[in-house]
Amino acid sequence: MNHPVPELFGSMVFGDAAMKERLPKAVYQSLQQTIREGSPLDPAVADVVANAMKDWALSKGATHFTHWFQPMTGITAEKHDSFLTPADGGAALMEFSGKELIKGEPDASSFPSGGLRATFEARGYTAWDPTSYAFIKDDTLCIPTAFCSYTGEVLDKKTPLLRSMDAISREACRLLKLLGKDCKRVTTTVGPEQEYFLINKEDYAKRRDLILTGRTLFGAPAPKGQELEDHYFGTIRPRVKAFMDDLDQELWKVGVYAKTEHNEVAPAQHEMAPIFETTNIATDHNQLTMELMRKVADRHGFVCLLHEKPFDGVNGSGKHNNWSISTDSGENLLDPGKTPAENRQFLLFLTAVIKAVDEYQDLLRISVASAGNDHRLGANEAPPAILSVFVGDELGGILHAIEEGRDYAAAEATKMTGASVLPPISKDTTDRNRTSPFAFTGNKFEFRMLGSAMNIACANIMLNTAVAESLRQFADELEQADDLAAASALLIKREITAHKRILFNGNGYDDAWVTEAEARGLSNLRSTPEALPHYTDQKNVDLFVRHGVYTPAEMASRQEIQLEEYAKTLAIEALTMVDMIRRDILPACVSYVHELSDTAASKQTIGVDNTTEVTLARTLSAATADLLTHVTALENALHCVPDTDAAGTAMYYHDAVLAAMEAARADADKLESMVPKTRWPMPTYSDLLFYV
Ligand code: ADP
Ligand code: MG
């Protein structure tokens, strides 16, 4: 607990320091080359690395190893094997071979594959990702791996992410070469800010909705919400502080650069922001962060809720995906420098991103589509379901000047350098910019539509590939040019003009924006079942096939899995709701009506005025009858799920089941305010959100 941070940091990671110390120089260099340049791994080094890794792990007290992977369930999967190998005379040795390091064969039949692999073809492979360091968790050496089927189709989120990183690297290097830069590898970097709620374990245990669905399906608003805005960045309560300190320590041990911990907008809501890293590592680390948040919360008597909308009426939780691109020499390609108007490289990359977001709005929307996030997109403090790009006034001015074919005016230039101590491009600190779903923030873009529970791989696969496609087109065009300067200027002007409709600096939460966006021809895919069918639109299939990120079959399977997941999530929620209404809420209401009626009857026999009891019993009886009507309607909706394709089923759940759930919930929430606290069968929003 009390180790100095530098000593603690990465102490459970087989990282660069451990490799340098434990690997022969040649092996170390070969592995480094793979890590740095993404070149294939030399199989000869695997045995040596495996052995060194095992010795290191044993010295840290590990007994098992696992291939740690990210199947399409959204969580991480692991199957533990011990290092134990029988030796002569009934003895045991601890062994770990290169083969075991490089490849695993978990049974793939129980992971979702969307029809890619029949259950009888159960074989699946995991393959080591040497670019993400192995680490120890729970006395187990975890080896980050990719997961694919026997026939080679990918069954996970990591493989396409790595492929998309290759694609953007390839195309960016081509463009940089034209600009006179010899660059072997370009990487995208990500810093995901993670929001979450902490509630008391005892309260959680009393709510089957939280246990089974991750969110409250009932709950009248607490008398106090977030209207006083007294929680954001507020003083952190001691118990929460202890949790955060413990979480930092755990994250540091496994090499996650946890940097900022603070209270968020909603009561009981908090955030952790790490320092950015290469995208696949940031993805692994975010998965690990979510897991550790849950685990550490438990030690402190809390439950960590990662659902996008655990509570109605207060903010939901998102994940801000801060994203940039940098070269192998560490140059940030989205850094505008002091004079962005003259920075051709910056303008080309900026234009590439703007074009990508405009052309693949639907894909970016789909990358953040889930039943949970549907409660959040477009709601309070969250970005709307419409994609737009915020570049700020300064950059906006430059792009406008380019579009109009004039020099960037001096007056505008002074505004930019108004105070010499300030950076030339102001960071987005203003309130209204918080509403942008995709905002330029100085030297990176912040994609804010992601839901808190999501694996960030999806969003980054879409982003990397879409930008790779812009860069490919730019490189193709400029490779043919005689005069690079003139050709780039022309290209930038043309593309900015073509895609300016996606640029929006105003308030994204304003209803007027929805109308304007429609007039601009921007897509507005409001719900998951509305968005997902567009995943396999021809232009999207063409994109992924061209860049070798997905095959058409892989895309169809992913679409199917996500549609099914949506329907299943809603089915579980609806069933949980029916169960809680029938077995908890209705009995509580009926028994209270009974008590009131008893009292009323007794009062009548002794000739005392019983108007109060009669009135209360009547109102409550009527409201209970409404709830019974609506829960019956919900049950009927569940009985009538049409036998159609995944898209049709998902849409039915959205239109019929979700609507029926909302009606039933409204009744239940009304009843909550009429039944004595002691008789209400579950902790209320006040209990959950304002514990001490
Ligand atoms: P801001 O004040 O603009 O929000 P911060 O410096 O607080 O910026 O960073 C917010 C998040 O963005 C952090 O997780 C940080 O590591 C990440 N970030 C900063 N620079 C980059 C970059 N070049 N690429 C990706 N993420 C970045
Ligand atoms: Mg934030």
TrEMBL record:
Protein name: Uncharacterized protein
Listed GO MF terms: glutamine synthetase activity
Pfam family of the protein (one): Gln-synt_C-ter
GO biological process per UniProt: glutamine biosynthetic process
Residue stretches making up the GS beta-grasp domain: 63-152
InterPro entries the UniProt entry points to: Gln-synt_C, Gln_synt_N, Gln_synth/guanido_kin_cat_dom, Gln_synth_cat_dom, Gln_synth_gly_rich_site, GS_Type-3, GSIII_N
Family membership noted in the UniProt record: Belongs to the glutamine synthetase family.
PROSITE patterns associated with the record: GLNA_ATP (PS00181), GS_BETA_GRASP (PS51986), GS_CATALYTIC (PS51987)
GS catalytic domain segment(s): 157-585
